[in-house]
Design brief:
The structure holds three protein chains of three kinds. By secondary structure, chain A is α/β, with parallel strands linked by helices. Chain A has twelve helices and 21 strands. Chain A has two domains: 102 residues, Urease, subunit C, domain 1, CATH 2.30.40; 307 residues, Metal-dependent hydrolases (TIM Barrel, Alpha-Beta Barrel). In chain A, strands 3-2-7-19-20-21 form a six-stranded mixed beta sheet, with helices on one face. A six-stranded parallel beta sheet of chain A has the order 11-12-13-16-17-18, with helices on both faces. In chain A, helix 8 packs parallel to helix 9. In chain A, 58% of the residues are buried. Chain B folds into two domains: 157 residues, Aspartate/ornithine carbamoyltransferase (Rossmann fold, 3-Layer(aba) Sandwich), CATH 3.40.50; 151 residues, 3-Layer(aba) Sandwich (Rossmann fold), CATH 3.40.50. In chain B, the strands form two sheets. Chain B has a five-stranded parallel beta sheet with strand order 7-6-5-8-9. A four-stranded parallel beta sheet of chain B has the order 2-1-3-4, sandwiched between helices. In chain B, helix 6 crosses helix 7 and helix 6 crosses helix 13. Chain B starts with 23 loop residues before the first helix and ends in a 12-residue tail after the last helix. Chain C has one domain: Rossmann fold. In chain C, helix 2 links the parallel strand 2 and strand 3. Chain C is globular and about 45 Å long. The termini of chain C are close together. Classes of the chains: A alpha/beta, B alpha/beta, C alpha/beta. Chains B and C meet through helix 1 and helix 13 of B and helix 3, strand 4 and helix 4 of C.
Chain lengths: 429, 326, 168
């Protein structure tokens, strides 16, 4: 054992991966967890962290967060957004391939890694492109991407229209042992739609983005996944029917998983009344029953991860008529408080909520993170479940202020984040 | 939330963006004021000095000569100065953002924007970002709202029919893409209309048409049965290429208003159309030019109603206007 | 509350004879008469009949010409002005019930000039009170009264006409 020895004492440790929920200590040496429970004999701590009143859990794993680098540094940077991640308790985040320079070569993968390493605020896992340039025509060099360290590929917001290309992409990814992350959308059914095809969208006369654009894509992808044996993960579901289809596939033993964006568990179509561009997201907020089904799916485990679907924007991206604005919400820093709100509203218990932020997403991509196993990397989050704070000003770290929650008062706040045993965030009061 | 920005802190109408959330009293008041202005339009001097010194900008991001003409004439009859700014979509995509365009014109010390835009919510966006002394009147945004058209249609109906609570109104055609239909449905319901119907093939209806507060018909003969007012909507040619409909011919055969079909409505039913008319597509010429058509009356009413809205938005409360200075 | 009534008939007589004298003095030929809505038009109806004028009576509603529009806005259902003649080059007897601040007359003159350029305008009012805010004066009056700042004189009508003083 080498490096600094840290003991976190007096906190309530919740580690769903080990079924722990107890007032115990967490011992860290260097970048590894040494023990959770009693302090091992002979462990001399260099630093003691008093976690009284706090919850100590694995650092959060976020399956979908956009950092905007390389190419859109006017929106955000790896430095700004990984700092926001650290402040949000997120220690591992996956970045979709639709950066301005698409993540379809090892060079871009390495670039992202190196930048993230030099900032040192969070682990960044680049998701590779399924097709070259996300064009949906030719396969990307998946073997090379895998060699460069990618564990998953996907086509992000550029659905593969040609189903033959999708099928071959799934086959080839399966062959490479890569997981395919699919944001399900049938583009012809979407047809420039930007709001749910429900009561509100019909009344406001906004271009409609029907649920069927999602469910048809889920159905097609499920059939092809079964046929090709590819391991598919569906990202950011929005509709009741899609959850039911995935539950049914899982029951039949198909290796398929899914996540949901945190804001989809709270907001509904009625958020767009008033045309607030900050609630323009893709997929759109849908009906109350869709939201309730997403909550049920999360509680039952059909959806085994909550992601932030963080999309920071420059102010101009949201300064236009609603349909002309860029979709997406800056949401890393509301991930924990909005998850705790689910607990408060009785959707799921605290341990399950933490599981959906830690071992759930980690297991989907086989990252080995999101746990306090002895020997695991010491990525730890300490949060105060009752502290109130306002999401604004110096308490907001992302460069993107594009969230309807900006200025809101939240309960539950990250007080400290350790990344590989190093303190990357510490709240000073 | 979407309607509260239409009023200032004292509850006075500041912007006119949507019918949604307006009271029955306010709609009646707009019609009453419009009635006063109709008399102005009938006189040898068709102009009053109410808005002298005010500058009104017609900001049209979407071409519509007719609507712009009636707003321009309405403003001029109120003695306002009028600036017409036509911004084709291609010009904005050349780089200047919508907000930059607004800021530029705002810098010329103007008092009101009359906005036409192809995106739903554009007028709301502009209203949220203009300087505090500027008012915004929505002259049509996307498929969302066209409140002055709805009010001139209500005004026209009131000239022919006594009591909204005894009226059955059928709106026929492309409801899905129609801001006029959405605004009219809201206004008719606020005014307590007995029954509002929409008549259209499923492809031209939004997914939850009944949630708009209407009864839905897919058959024109049934939809027209016993109605007092028929509102025909314009059918855009591009609906054929978008696979909404097979052909103009088929549409006219099943949804076009002919004299025979109109006979299903009450004998004294009136026929309306927001214009411009596609003769032989949604309406037969014999109906459009026939005795039951009030289409041209709608056009002249358009000026009075727009004068009413502009003067109410730029003027004071009007609630305490009794006697006063002698 | 009504404090007391003033006699209308005597004032109407006096205004009538004043107008006749003015018509003679200025040598007006076939003058037009315009009453200001509402009180002025009631008074004008009586005078129009007494003077036996040839042209029909004109009615002016100055709602659209008020200078307090930006404070109080527009009054709905304004009865339209009705001038059933051409004013260009004509002599006009402009009639109102009460002359107070002078603003109504200012608005009325503006409106008349929008219709054309009259030769002369004679202003006749049933009663004149203090409190002018604009340099306007009547040529013929039926009577004069000085009132406190919280007092108002009001004409009710049309049949019968009655003048009363109110204290607010």
């Amino acid at each position: 054992m080498s490096g600094e020895r840290i003991v976190i004492k007096g906190g309530r440790v919740i580690d769903p991966s080990n079924g722990i929920d107890a007032m115990v200590s967490v011992c860290i040496a260097g970048d590894k967890i040494v023990a959770v429970g009693e302090i091992p004999i002979g462990f001399e701590a260099d630093q003691e962290i008093d976690a009284k009143g706090l919850i100590v859990c694995p650092g959060f794993v976020d399956l979908c967060a956009r950092l905007r680098e390389p190419g859109q540094e006017f929106k955000a940077t790896i430095a700004s957004e990984t700092a926001a991640a650290a402040a949000a308790g997120v220690t591992t985040l996956c970045c979709p391939p639709d950066t301005r320079r698409v993540i379809d070569t090892p060079a871009v993968v390495n670039l992202l890694r190196e930048r993230a390493d030099s900032v040192g605020k969070a682990r960044v896992i680049p998701i590779g492109a399924l097709t070259r340039g996300l064009q949906g025509k030719e396969l990307s060099s998946m073997m090379a991407l895998k060699t460069a360290g990618c564990v998953a590929v996907g086509n992000a917001y550029a659905p593969v229209e040609n189903l033959l290309v999708l099928r071959r992409g799934l086959e080839y990814a399966a062959n490479c042992g890569l997981i395919v992350v699919v944001r399900p959308e049938e583009p012809t059914l979407r047809n420039r739609g930007c709001v749910h095809d429900g009561v509100i969208g019909s009344r406001l006369g906004l271009p409609l983005f029907p649920s069927s654009a999602e469910t048809v894509a889920v159905a097609q992808t499920l059939v092809l996944a079964e046929q090709t044996g590819a391991r598919v993960h569906f990202g950011q579901l929005s509709s009741e029917r899609a959850v039911a289809m995935i539950a049914e596939a899982q029951q039949r033993g198909v290796g398929v998983s899914a996540d949901v964006a945190i804001h989809q568990l709270h907001l509904t179509e009625s958020a767009v009344i008033g045309f607030d561009a900050n609630v323009h997201v893709n997929p759109p907020f849908r009906s109350q029953s869709d939201r309730d089904a997403l909550r049920e799916g999360l509680a039952s485990g059909v959806l085994s991860a909550i992601c932030s679907d963080h999309q920071p924007h420059d102010p101009n991206a949201k300064l236009d008529a609603f349909p002309a604005t860029e979709p997406g919400m800056s949401s890393l820093e509301t991930l924990l408080p909005l998850s705790l709100k689910l607990v408060e509203e009785g959707v799921l218990d605290l341990t399950s909520a933490i599981a959906r932020l830690t071992e759930g997403p980690s297991a989907i991509l086989g990252l080995g993170a999101g746990t306090l196993n002895a020997g695991a990397t010491a990525d730890v989050c300490l949060f105060d479940p009752i502290q109130e704070w306002t999401a604004e000003g110096t308490d907001w770290h992302s460069k993107g202020l594009n969230t309807p929650f900006y200025g809101s008062v939240f309960k539950g706040r990250v007080t400290m984040t350790l990344l590989g045993g190093h303190m990357v965030h510490c709240l000073r009061l | 939330m979407n309607t509260s920005i239409q009023f200032d802190a004292t509850g006075k109408l500041r912007h006119f963006l949507t019918i949604d959330g307006l009271s029955r009293e306010l709609l009646v008041r707009i019609m009453d004021v419009a009635e006063s202005f109709s008399s102005v339009t009938d006189q040898q001097v068709k102009k009053v000095p109410l808005l002298r010194g005010k500058t009104i900008v017609n900001l049209f991001f979407e071409n519509s000569t007719r609507t712009r003409n009636t707003f321009e004439l309405a403003a001029k009859r109120l003695s306002a100065d009028v600036l017409n700014v036509n911004i084709a979509t291609s010009a904005t995509s050349k780089g200047e953002s919508l907000l930059d365009t607004i800021r530029n014109i705002e810098a010329m010390s103007v008092d009101m924007f009359v906005v036409r835009h192809e995106a739903s919510g554009a007028a709301h966006f502009i209203a949220q970002h203009v300087a505090p002394h500027i008012s915004v009147v929505n002259a049509g945004d996307g498929s969302h709202s066209h409140p002055t058209q709805a009010m001139l249609d209500m005004f026209t109906i009131r000239q022919y029919k006594d009591d909204f609570s005894k009226l059955k109104v059928a709106i026929v055609g492309d409801i899905l893409h129609s801001r006029v239909a959405r605004s009219e449905i809201l206004a008719l319901n606020i005014l307590g209309t007995e029954e509002v119907r929409v008549v259209a093939p499923k492809t031209l209806l939004p997914d939850h048409p009944e949630s708009l507060g209407v009864n839905v018909f897919h058959d024109l003969d049934q939809g027209l049965e016993g109605v007092d007012v028929v509102v025909m909507l314009r059918l855009q040619k591009e609906r054929m290429s978008g696979a909404f409909l097979p052909s103009e011919h088929e549409y006219f055969s099943y949804f076009g208003l002919t004299e025979e079909r109109l006979a299903k409505a009450k004998p004294n039913a009136i026929v309306m159309h927001p214009g411009p008319i596609n003769r032989g597509v949604e309406i037969d010429s014999r109906v459009a030019d026939g005795p039951q058509s009030v289409i041209l009356r709608q056009v002249s009413n358009g000026i009075a109603v727009r004068m009413a809205v502009m003067s109410m938005v730029l003027g004071g409360h009007g609630e305490t206007n009794t006697g006063g200075a002698s | 509350m009504v404090d007391f009534q003033l006699s209308v008939e005597k004032k109407l007589d006096r205004l009538h004879s004043g107008l006749v004298a003015e018509i003679t003095r200025r040598e007006l030929r076939d003058p037009l008469m315009i009453g200001i809505h509402t009180g002025g038009s009631w008074v004008a109806e009586k005078l129009h009949e007494r003077l036996g004028l040839k042209d029909p009576l004109g009615l002016l509603n100055i709602s659209f010409y008020r200078d307090d529009f930006s404070q109080i806005g527009i009054h709905p259902r304004v009865l339209p002005s009705n001038l059933p003649f051409r004013v260009e080059g004509r002599d006009i007897l402009l009639i109102d019930d009460v002359l107070y601040t002078g603003r109504t007359i200012r608005a009325a003159l503006n409106e008349i000039f929008d219709y054309g350029r009259p030769a002369q305008i004679v202003l006749g009012v049933l009663i004149e009170r203090d409190g002018r805010q604009i340099p306007v004066q009547a040529d013929c009056i039926g009577g004069r009264i000085d009132l406190g700042p919280d007092e108002k004189v009001k004409l009710s009508g049309p049949n019968p006409l009655s003048l009363s003083i109110h204290c607010s």
